[in-house]
Every structure is written in structure tokens, then in C-alpha cells.
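hi!! sorry for the late reply, been swamped w classes. u asked for the two structures so here they r. pasted raw, havent cleaned anything up. first the sequence of the first protein and right below it the C-alpha cells
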Amino acid sequence: MEGKKNEEHLDIENPNNNSKENDPYASKKALIYACFIFIGLVNNLGYVLIITSAQQFASKLNNETLIAFYPLALILFNSISRFMNSKYCITISYFKRILGLSIYFCFGYLFLFTILTIIDYSKDFDQTLAFFLSLIPAIIMGTGQSFGEATFLGYIRTFPEDYVSGWSSGTGFAGVFGASLSLIFKIITEQFDLKNLYLIISPVTILFFFAFYITFRIKTNIDNKRKIENENETENNFSNSLPERPSDLLDNNNSKATDVSQNKKMSLENFPLVFKYGKRYILNLLIVYFLEYTICSGLCERANHFGYIDSRGTFFEKAQYETFLLCYQIGVVISRSSLFIFKYLKFVELLNLFQIVNFVFWFIEAMKGIISNQWICFASLILLGLCGGGVYVGCFYFILNDNHIPADYKELCLNICTIFVDFGVLLSSITCIVLDNTIMKENKK
């Protein structure tokens, strides 16, 4: 009896509880997973393409010192986007939110293509105005990505908890896909202009909404069918005790309604309570994102450019930064696709310890250029992605399984976690700009 009592007070449910037998969507699981992977990929793709294109944007404006402003624009208003979602949109249906997001993304791609085309064909175009206009698509992609992440994590909350791995795999693959596109076109021709890619990709936002709609219809049909079955069973088994409500029966069988009307909104009263519930996850995500983005956006871009390696005339000499980002994204996609491993790693702080070591390594490299082998750099960046992706997928899985977080606070907790993710990236961008104009000013190659 005492053992049972203790089990009821565990913070995290047993990962094995979400077995196939308890999954009402098991017959459609492969299709739902594929849709979540695609949704995650498209949601983050524009964000990744802006990061990998930052050097090309800056070169168009003949000022490479502007590179750090594009990652900054990607995240500058993200927290506002997430706050708007948690304050005003969290009780709006997922269908309406995601339809609006699809249109927003499509507009962002077309606007980016238009701005870059104007800059290319208007030789007398004011450079300062061009710079600020080129930041607008970055703001669109950044706020869209953050709004989509907060919304889809809330939506995936209505499925069994391990379905989050489909989403996380897609977001990880977005990094590899986006970085690979830049490398592929650079291999084909160094003169390729990525603005044409944005025009080609824009229709994918239609498929983005369609993939969500497939999962929405599957869930709605199965939930309605099970609701009717439970109502019939309740009527047949009516006895002296009051029957459970159909919604309770659904919840007890790991099928959760997409009704968002009960979600708690962001408020001065709710924020400290949710922070108390999820502070461990919030702080770990804040730290890991600050460290990895400082390395990717600042330190590795200022590394020695292989001046100490016999790579003159090789592809690595021409595309070092893109290669570095690709290595990092490979680590991310591997870890974000490995929930089956990370859901058993309860001490996620260990991954952040590895990130701190990595940070020290890259800080020394950016300042001194002491590493004599590019493969050490590649391995370090893969490890960077592995740790970052592991913290991401692990923390969100634990939130969904944490018994101490009430169901009506779950989506708000997920939103606040993503707000602190943005805060970590914002701190990273500010740090990179400060370093770029102070102690690392002379290290820019």
C-alpha cells in the first residue's frame, strides 16, 4: 500500500505507460508521425534558411558586419509572438491558428523574394533602407516559427506524449535540410542566388496546413467514435454509482480533446505558478539555447577559417561556415529523433555540462585558432547539436508527462518554456554583437 502511494507522487510518469495498447491512434500512428515530421520541418525551414543565408544578405549590402543582425531579427520579436499566443490566442482553435500561420509563412517567403529582387535590380536603391527591408522577412520567419512551435506543442499535447518525437524530428531535420540546400547550391555554382529558392519553396506552406488537417481529421474521427462507444457502454453499465463523464473516459485512455477553452492564459497570477511548475525545464532550455546559439552564430563563424589546415583551393575553404552549421544540424536531427533514448535520461542537466565544455572550447578557438584538424571541429559541433536537441526533446516530453503540472496549465507551461528559449537566443545574439565589436573585433577574417 505504501509503494502504491509513493508511485502516485512521482513527478514523471513511467515512459512505458504509453504502450501501443493504450494508444487510440495506433492504427494511424505512422501517418500521424509522418505529418508531424513534415510540419516540424516546414515550421522551422524559413528560420534555418535565413540563418544560412545571412552571409549572402550581408554581401549584397557590401557589409559583412551586418551578419549578426539577421539572427537577432529572427528572435527579437519571438517572445512577443509567443506572449500573444499565450495571452490572446491560446483559447482559439488550433485549426484557425494554423490556417493563419500557413498564410503568414507564404507571405514571408514571397516578401523575401520580392525584397531581394528589388535590391538586385535597383542599383541606386538606398543601402540603409535595403538593410532594414531585408530584416522584415527574418522577423516574419522568426515570429512565425515561434508561434507555430508554441501552437503545435499545445496541439501535440492532445495526443499521447511520445508523439512529440515526430514534431521534434521534423524540426531537427529542418536544420539539416536548410543547411544542405545552401551547400548544394554553393557546390553547383557559387553565383546561385537563394532568392529563387524562396519563391520555389513558398507553395510548401499549403502542404504544411494540409498535413495538419490530416492529423486533425484523424483525431476528430477517432475521438468522436470512441466518445460514442463510451457513451453506449456507460448507458449499458449504469448502476447505483454515477457513471464517469465521457470526457473523463477519454482522458483515462490517453485520448485528449482538442478543446482549448479550458487552457489557462498568460497573466501576472498564472506566470509565477507555471514557472514554479516548470522551472527546471525552463532553466535548462534557457541555458542550452544560449550556449549553442552563441557558438553557432558567433564563435564558430569567427574560427580560424582553416588557415592552419592545408585546405587552400578546396571546398571546405569556400564553405566553412555552411559546413559547420551542417555538422551542428546533423547532431540536432539525431538527438531530436531519439526520444526513445532521452526520455530515460532524467538528469538533463548533464547535457548542459557538456555544452559548457563545448562553449569554452569554441571561445578559445575563436580567440586563438589553436585547433589543427577540421574533424575535431566537426565532431564538436555534432556534439553541440546532440546535447541541444536532447535537452529540447527531453524537456518537452517530461513536461507532457509531469503529473505535478495540471492539464489546464500544460499548454501555458509549454509556451513559457519557448519564451525562455527565445530569451536564451536573444541573449546569445546580443553577446555575439558585443564580442564582435570588442574583444573579437580583430579576429574577424
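now the second protein. again sequence first, C-alpha cells right under
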Amino acid sequence: MSDVTRRGALAILGGAAAIAVFQPARAEIEVTKEMILNDPAAPVGGNPEGDVTIVNFTDYNCPYCKKVAPVLARVVKEDGKIRHVYKDWPVIRPTSIDGAQLVLAAHRQGRYEQAHTALMGIPGSGIERERMREALRQAGMDMDRLDRDLAEKRDEIDSLIQRNMAQGDALGLTGTPSFLIGPFRMSMLDYDGFRQVISDARAAQADGNG
């Protein structure tokens, strides 16, 4: 993938107010395959040296993301050779940005995946910031440090979210969850579906098509 054209996310979601926060800065972001796969600031789970990469565009107000998250976690754990790149893509509600900022602040204390799991465990959509904070507190986050990191690293956190937003636009994603699995782009998958696409991705890579 070479540089690709960015789309305005307002068009994707019919004018979601939350996305407008990040629109001006994103207009100047150049999107490349390297950025999507290897942004050094992006949280990575699973096996960092895995032979297949799954890039996961997700939103903490997305019920479908919440349904698929434990399925993907199981697949990644059982497989053992999957590199899982998280892309917080807050496109559903204004509080989606709150969720993305909170988990990326938790990433500064080395607890991104615990924070991700905690927010994905809140049922429904339209989750308010304080409910998210309570879920993180219950999951054992150091909330004082999280607040400090959120304040001190806010520009870095927001810059990463802006890059994620630009990447989603450039790929033409239309909703969450969205997954890049090797050379394939997918949406909702069940356990068997993930395993099949991962197998297909490995075969494609072996053939030089990954």
C-alpha cells in the first residue's frame, strides 16, 4: 500500500460530533502502510514477533466490538503467533474519545490491554466518562498516575488518535469493529471465522501475497 487518500470521517458517520474534534489536524496526516502496521506509539498485544498481524480498529461505545473482543482475545492467546495492533478509533459518540484517551493514558503504565478489556466489559453504548473511569478503577488502574499521564501526555495521546482516525479514513472503513488480518480486511467474525482468515493470511504470506 502506498500513500492513500484520506476521507472525512464526518461523511462516514453522517456528522458525528465527536469526530469533528480531530478533523483539522488529520487533514495534514500522510498515511502509509508502515504507519498502519508499525506506528511505534500504538499498543501491541499478543506476540510482538508473530508471523501474522491483526490490526484492530475499535470503539468503546461499539456493542459489536464488545461482543467480538473476548473471541479475538481467545484466538490470539491460543494461536501464540499473532501480533495484535490496537487502533483506538473513536467514531460513534463524543464519549468514545474519552475512552480512547483513558486507555492510552493507561498504556503509559503498561496496562493498555487490562484497560481495553475493562472498557469492553461495560455493556451497551453511550457510556459516560465516569462509568469508564470506574471500570478502570475496578480493574486496578493507578488512577492518580493515569490522570497525570493524561494531562502530561495529552498531546501525544491525541496525536496518536488523530493518526488512527486518518488511517481509518484512508482505508475507507465504515464502522467498527474493523480488522486488517494479513492482506485481508474484515468486520465481525466468530471464533472459527478468525481462525480461517488467519490461516488464509499465513497461506497468502507464504505465497508472497501478504
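hope this helps!! also noticed smth abt the second:
The first helix runs from residue 9 to 12.
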